[in-house]
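Q: I have 166 residues here and want to know how they pack in 3D. Can you give me a structure?
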Amino acid sequence: MAQPAAVVVAFSSRCGTTEGFAHAAAVGVVNARALPRLRRLADDGHPVPPECADTFRRMRKEYVSPTEKDVVAAPALIIVPSAGMTPSSGEWQSFIALLDRLASAGMLTGKVGAVIDTGDRQTVMSFSSTLAKCGFALLAADGGDARTQGRAVGAAIMRTMHQPSR
């Protein structure tokens, strides 16, 4: 039996709210019979609100940052940015630079990408634009919650994986 396709779910979170959206997207990926790889972006050094300190410490222990190997090996990438973030926000800069470098090397061709809406359409549009410039085939994540959006991405991956070669 073939191994399920892996889908990288990259997110940035300090207090756990965006982590919840990432988990919901990962559940959708599992529902579509794909394997989520949850990856939390490296911290940008900004102070964490005191009420988030325990959650922040836990997430630093539980997650690793996305790597080049993760992105190259996966047929899809789901980005889960906090509302108000942009691709040039501190947490995202190095990851977006990695995607740009991989795109320049032609290593993202044929991959599917999606941005989960965490409450700010402008955030979705800016990250979607970045993914499109990197060569990802974008899945519109309009409507529905993060789980529904994750399921749509997972289902699209599975359709792509099961298409006959030409």
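Q: Anything worth noting?
A: The chain has six helices and five strands. The helical segments are 17-31, 53-62, 68-73, 90-104, 121-133, 146-162.
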